[in-house]
Automatic annotation (TrEMBL), chain A:
Organism from which the protein derives: Marinobacter zhanjiangensis
Origin: domain of life: Bacteria
Keyword tags: FAD, Flavoprotein, Oxidoreductase
InterPro entries: Acyl-CoA_Oxase/DH_mid-dom (IPR006091), Acyl-CoA_Oxase/DH_mid-dom_sf (IPR046373), AcylCo_DH-like_C (IPR036250), AcylCo_DH/oxidase_C (IPR009075), AcylCoA_DH/ox_N (IPR013786), AcylCoA_DH/ox_N_sf (IPR037069), AcylCoA_DH/oxidase_NM_dom_sf (IPR009100), Mycobact_Acyl-CoA_DH (IPR052161)
Family to which this protein belongs: Belongs to the acyl-CoA dehydrogenase family.
Domain Acyl-CoA dehydrogenase/oxidase C-terminal residue range list: 231-395
Cofactor(s) of this protein: FAD
Domain Acyl-CoA oxidase/dehydrogenase middle per the UniProt entry, residue ranges: 125-219
Protein name: Acyl-CoA dehydrogenase
Residues of the Acyl-CoA dehydrogenase/oxidase N-terminal domain: 6-121
Automatic annotation (TrEMBL), chain B:
Residues annotated as domain Acyl-CoA dehydrogenase/oxidase C-terminal: 242-356
Cofactor(s) this protein requires: FAD
SUPFAM superfamilies for this protein: Acyl-CoA dehydrogenase C-terminal domain-like (SSF47203), Acyl-CoA dehydrogenase NM domain-like (SSF56645)
Domain Acyl-CoA dehydrogenase/oxidase N-terminal residues, every copy: 6-118
Family the entry assigns: Belongs to the acyl-CoA dehydrogenase family.
Residues annotated as domain Acyl-CoA oxidase/dehydrogenase middle: 122-215
Name this polypeptide is given: Pimeloyl-CoA dehydrogenase small subunit
Entry keyword DNA-binding: no
InterPro entries cross-referenced by the UniProt entry: Acyl-CoA_Oxase/DH_mid-dom, Acyl-CoA_Oxase/DH_mid-dom_sf, AcylCo_DH-like_C, AcylCo_DH/oxidase_C, AcylCoA_DH/ox_N, AcylCoA_DH/ox_N_sf, AcylCoA_DH/oxidase_NM_dom_sf
């Protein structure tokens, strides 16, 4: 047992820091740290820098452009890149569909899709959820019927994150209605520019356009866009979900958010003294900081334990629940820290180009919106109730 | 004890309920919120015509001297409709301060307009760094000639964007956090030196910060005794808190009904999601939080117009603390149990959730009221 970084790990951390110091664009970091709006171009610019460094698809096998990072190295990267204000990787291509293609795709699919994910030519979105199929994903109804060399797809996906930017969508579709729900699902890769696809925005409670509805009307998809075998999509879908969940613990993001919160609380005053020094508020922060300390180690322990055995299984559900609760708690405190200034909703102040005077703290404007927006963390990627169901069934045997 | 409303109180509540149901559909509310004014001028006029803006005022002003319970009846229904009009700000809070501290001439000048709804008053008391402490006043009022010159800034005045008159607290003596030395002034919102920066709020309403730069007022602008306004502020803030509690209960009632309905109707895994025990229990907790909140709103209403003493102080602090906590819990739980739908702009639940959380940022958050209560604890 040794809870300190080894010399190699420290050297790796230095390397990461040097890279971030040199390559992370200041305007992007400022946006991330101040919770300002990121554009598609911001994401793409940062992606290119990471690809050039060889760190964008770090978890892919080396032959496709990955690097063999240990769990500790991954953790160091996560923590440092978040602390520096590097944007969260939009996960749908590199972290979601790619592992599925790598594990279950044909050689042609790997050769075709993986380089386009790296180059940014393909921006992927995730077409799992439907209006009637949320937690009960397997009940999905979007239909794909084989017609010669094509599937004809009809139906609707919803909650499609950043679908407005995407040119590719990976979809779970029903190819067989005669069997149990889980056994008639296939995994299809669909070009968003195919005739018959339309995208409609869904505005969330904070006024953002982040999610969409995607409609399919007689959409022709070539059969070579099927991943793996027909009707076996559920297996691939679940494989992807465990990947998704581990990322959702968001330890690095929580650490960065906590730092942000503490900076904010040392600027805001209560009874003429920094809020951070107020016993009541200080205890609120201490509680979540302690929780995060424990979660960081749990995260490392669990990932280390399954290393070699592949991705974590039901344990990732536990990490997702804890991790999202912590992030939400930090957002909750940030909103509280600005007191009555949680109310004003001044969109101009959320832009990095804003040159006027800030109403209160320069980082205050997005905080309430962010608090409300991040209620999603306990809903998506499998709601926290569903994660607990998984843990009680798979780990506890209940 | 008697927990039922009198016939008149019930009629009052029914009147407001009918009006809100008729005029304030969720879709209309979204439209009102988008306008420059930020609420419905027409609805505000109707509140005036029906005598509802006059409720707390005496007969000669068209009212019937309504107390905390009458205000509660109105505010609960306005809360159910997520109404955006500055009723609490102008009628309860502003009107309350003028009634308590104003001299005959000042009452004559303002109250008729407040009671009819033609004049909108906003109490601009809190300051940017004060973190809910209304006695933390840096704004200064210097004697000049036979009047005063005011300079300073007031923070997040909900309804202030459209106010005709601001009631401003300013220091005439003492240190920044002294209760002593605070004075109240009624100033024309368009007077020279008064600037407002207006903005929408995240819960769909509007407000402003008020900047006072050498604003000259006559001696007749002073409300009450110079330097002795802290008691008035505390007392009237208590009435406003009771009104906010009632509004919150209206919001929570609606939020809980929407959630319960959704649990029965939304199906996953072949059954209504309300069949899942973990959701049942959370809904039960939402209901009991609402009951706790309702009890405290009733208690707050009954103390709103009572004589000031520590029991009144404790009760109102307790009420706001329960309301803040319950509103937060109901908001987060409701969103969670709705899944993705609970996060969408086009569904009313999300707007109740936002309002409930933001009520927790008005007139004191959870910590503020718990600390206040703790400071007033009795040993036995
Ligand atoms: C901001 C956002 C972004 C998203 N992005 C994407 C995306 O890019 N692609 C995509 O495919 N999907 C996406 N989703 C969809 C997300 O995965 C679903 O919202 C989620 O699976 C929940 O489904 P639902 O919203 O239909 O809620 P429901 O499944 O209807 O759930 C409602 C409530 O019931 C509970 N519940 C359901 N079943 C059970 C049970 N058996 N036991 C106990 N409780 C239960 C849930 O936990 C929840 O509290 C996104 C969602 C959001 C909010
Ligand atoms: C100090 C004490 C005094 C008592 N006095 C009396 C007495 O005077 N007379 C008398 O007749 N009995 C008495 N009881 C017994 C008491 O009523 C039972 O303990 C109680 O009904 C629970 O039954 P159980 O202990 O068998 O627990 P179980 O019924 O086995 O319950 C175990 C756990 O499972 C939970 N559980 C059970 N069913 C469900 C469900 N459907 N959904 C969710 N959770 C569930 C329970 O809440 C509990 O947490 C007493 C018990 C105690 C501890």
């Amino acid at each position: 047992m040794n809870m300190n970084y080894t010399a190699e790990e420290l050297a790796f951390r230095d390397e990461v820091r040097a890279f971030l110091d040199e390559k992370l664009p200041a305007d992007i970091a400022a946006k991330v740290k101040g919770f300002r709006k990121m554009t598609k171009e911001d994401h793409q610019r940062w992606q290119k820098i990471l690809v050039d460094q060889g760190w964008y698809a770090s978890h892919w096998p080396e032959e496709y452009g990955g690097v063999k990072w240990t769990p500790v190295q991954k953790h160091i990267w996560d923590e440092e890149s978040c602390a520096y204000g590097a944007p969260r990787t939009v996960p749908f291509g590199v972290n979601m569909v790619a592992p599925v293609i790598i594990k279950f795709g044909t050689e042609e699919q790997k050769q075709y899709y993986l380089p386009k994910i790296l180059s940014g030519e393909h921006w992927w979105c995730q077409g799992y959820s439907e209006p009637g199929a949320g937690s009960d994903l397997a009940s999905l109804k979007t239909r794909a019927v084989r017609d010669g060399d094509h599937y004809i797809v009809n139906g609707q996906k919803t909650w499609t994150t950043l679908g407005q930017h995407a040119n590719m969508i990976f979809c779970l579709v029903r190819t067989n209605t005669e069997v149990k729900n889980q056994e008639g699902i296939s995994f299809l890769l669909i070009d968003m520019n195919t005739p018959g696809i339309s995208v409609r925005p869904i505005i969330t409670l904070d006024g953002e356009h982040e999610v969409n509805e995607v409609f399919f009307q007689d959409v022709k998809v070539p059969v070579e866009n099927l991943v793996g075998e027909e009707d076996k999509g559920w297996t691939y879908a679940k494989y992807l979900l465990t990947y998704e969940r581990t990322g959702l613990a968001g330890i690095g993001m929580s650490k960065a958010a906590l730092t942000h919160l503490k900076e904010l609380a040392s600027r805001r005053l209560k009874n003429g003294k920094p809020l951070l020094e107020d016993p009541t508020f200080g205890q609120r922060i201490a509680k979540v900081e302690i929780d995060l300390m424990a979660a960081t180690i749990s995260n490392l322990r669990i990932i280390a334990a399954v290393e070699g055995g592949g991705v974590p299984g039901a344990e990732s559900s536990m990490l997702k629940v804890k991790g999202t609760e912590i992030r939400q708690a930090i957002n909750d405190l940030a909103r509280r820290a600005i007191g009555p200034y949680a109310l004003p909703f001044i969109e101009e102040e959320m832009s990095l180009d804003y040159e006027g005077e800030f109403l209160s703290d320069e980082n205050a404007a997005p905080l309430s919106a962010q608090y409300f927006n991040n209620r999603k963390l306990s809903i998506f990627g499998g709601s926290n109730e569903i994660q607990k169901n998984i843990v009680s069934k798979m780990i506890l045997g209940l | 004890m008697d927990f039922t409303l009198s016939e008149e109180q019930q009629m009052l509540q029914d009147t407001v309920a009918r009006l809100v149901r008729g005029e304030y559909s969720f879709e209309k509310r979204l439209e009102f919120s988008e306008t420059e004014l930020g609420f419905s001028e027409d609805f505000w006029k109707q509140l005036g015509e029906l005598g509802l803006t006059a409720v707390p005022f005496p007969e000669e002003l068209g009212g019937f001297g309504g107390g905390g319970v009458e205000i509660q009846s109105v505010m609960t229904e306005l809360g159910r409709g997520l109404c955006l009009e500055p009723y609490m700000q102008s009628v309860v809070f502003g009107g309350g301060i003028l009634s308590q501290a104003g001299n005959d001439a000042q009452k004559e000048k303002y109250l008729e307009g407040v009671a009819s709804g033609e004049l909108k008053v906003a109490a601009a008391l809190q300051e940017p760094q004060a973190f809910y402490n209304q006695n933390e006043v840096e704004t200064r009022a210097e004697k000049s000639g036979d009047g005063y010159t005011l300079s300073g800034r007031k923070a997040v005045v909900i309804g202030g964007h459209c106010a005709d008159v601001f009631i401003v607290s300013a220091r005439t003596s003492g240190d920044v956090r002294d209760a002593d030395g605070i004075s109240l002034f009624a100033i024309d919102a368009n007077a020279e030196g008064v600037e407002r920066r207006s903005y929408p709020t995240i819960d769909g309403a509007k407000g402003c910060d008020v900047f006072l730069d050498n604003v000259k007022v006559g001696a007749d602008a002073l409300l009450g005794e110079e330097g002795k306004a802290a008691d008035v502020i505390e007392y009237q803030t208590g009435r406003a808190i009771a009104a906010l509690c009632a509004e919150a209960v209206g919001c929570m009632e609606e939020a809980n009904e929407l959630t319960l309905e959704y649990l029965k109707q939304r199906k996953q895994f072949g059954v209504p999601i309300g069949k899942f025990q973990v959701l049942q229990h959370r809904m039960v907790d939402m209901m009991s939080e609402l009951e706790q909140a309702r009890s405290m709103a009733i208690l707050a209403a009954s103390y709103a117009d009572a004589e000031q003493n520590d029991e009144r102080r404790r009760t109102l602090a307790a009420a706001k603390s329960v309301i803040n906590r319950a509103g937060h819990f109901i908001s987060e739980s409701g969103i969670q149990m709705h899944g993705g739908i609970g996060m969408t702009w086009e569904y009313s639940f999300a707007h109740y959730a936002k309002r409930l959380v933001m009520i927790g940022h008005q007139l004191g958050d959870d910590d503020f009221h718990l600390e206040r209560y703790a400071s007033l604890l009795e040993a036995s």
